[in-house]
Amino acid sequence: MLFFLVHLVARRLLRALAGRSSVAALEVENAVLRHQLAVLRRTVRRPPLERRDRLLLAAASTLLPRERWSVFLVRPQTLLRWHRELVARKWTYRRRSPGRPPLDPAVRELVVRLARENSRWGCVRIQGELRKLGIRVGATTIRSILRRSGLGPAPRRGGPSWSEFLRAQAQGMVACDFFTVETAWLRTLYVLFFVEHGSRRVQLAGVTANPDGVWMRQQARNLAIEERLGNVRFLLHDRDAKFSGPFDELIRSEVRVIKTPVRAPKANAVAERWVRTVRNECLDHVLVFGRRHLEQVVRDYVTHYNAERPHRSLALAPPAGAHEARGSPSSEILRRDAVGGLIHEYYAAAA
């Protein structure tokens, strides 16, 4: 009952003070806001303020006299500090740090890459290669980058890795071998092929049912006439009796012949791996009827293998060279059949 009487008296008192004038209503509104602010101060010790809130309160403090600053949630010292920060920000400009500008991280990575991929290149040589690419970097800077990356001078830098060494040696090496195919009439045919170790390119020499000395001598002559052994230094094959005699005699006039150890197929692993590939992807799914049929099928597959099939040891590029992107990712994808539809090749339609 007492609370109701106090509420009734306060209500009539405020109505008498406010009346109908707008100034009185504004004063009542200010009184209500001040009371709510006092309640907020009792419930929240330090409310979180954003940067725009500080900006607004600091600007409003310049319009109110000091005796009215009690309406703010913060202390007067805080408002003065915010105002000083605004003034300092007004007269503060971005200043460049002394010294040379920092080197682009991409250029730094390129310097380290050139040094690691070319162990015999010094700082001046790397500087010249960068200048060819339109990048100007001092030799002293390059030396500092290499020192921070743990790379020493060129004469004492680590040499090529085993993979790089073997890849360089494989450029002048060719392997040859036979594999047999049984026809539909249970006749055995022999396929002679050559594989370049460096590029993994395959060359089909011929198909025959009787690989005697005369036929082998003719295959050796074909190699010399067609200049397939122009950049070849070594020819690798096993100790099969079919390679002895006239074949080796004619080949030795052009290149050096290396025979694998006895019963060591891993010594001619590149040729053996291609035999497995051509069987798994082609010959195991085709019924061969004769020599001409087999020769046509193998030639079609060799064309696909050299020009289109990605190779893992070549960073998924075909032996004939890296493919150029044709079309765009949104282009229509078309299919081209090879080896009588046994193998499918895909390409993007021209825009």
Task: Give the SSE layout.
Layout: H1 2-18, H2 22-43, H3 51-61, H4 76-90, H5 105-117, H6 123-132, H7 139-148, H8 162-169, E1 173-182, E2 188-196, E3 202-208, H9 213-225, E4 234-237, H10 246-252, E5 256-259, H11 269-281, H12 291-307, E6 333-338, E7 343-348
Parallel strand pairs: 1-4, 4-5
Antiparallel strand pairs: 1-2, 2-3, 6-7
Helix pairs in contact: 3-4, 6-7, 9-10
With strands numbered from the N-terminus, the spatial order across the biggest sheet is 3-2-1-4-5
CATH class designation of the largest domain? Alpha Beta
Per DSSP, the total helix count is 12
Main sheet, how many strands, which sense, barrel?
A: 5 strands, mixed
CATH architecture of the largest domain: 2-Layer Sandwich
Order of helices and strands: HHHHHHHHEEEHEHEHHEE
Mean pLDDT: 78
In CATH, what is the homologous superfamily of the largest domain?
A: Ribonuclease H-like superfamily/Ribonuclease H
Radius of gyration, taken over Cα atoms and rounded to an integer in Å: 43 Å
Strand percentage lies at 5-15%
Poorly predicted ranges: none
For the termini, the CA-CA separation is 88 Å
Shape: elongated
List the domain count as a whole number. Answer: 4
- Helix proportion of residues, in percent? 40-55%
Structural class determined from secondary elements? alpha/beta
Number of separate strands: 7
Per CATH, what is the topology of the largest domain? Answer: Nucleotidyltransferase, domain 5
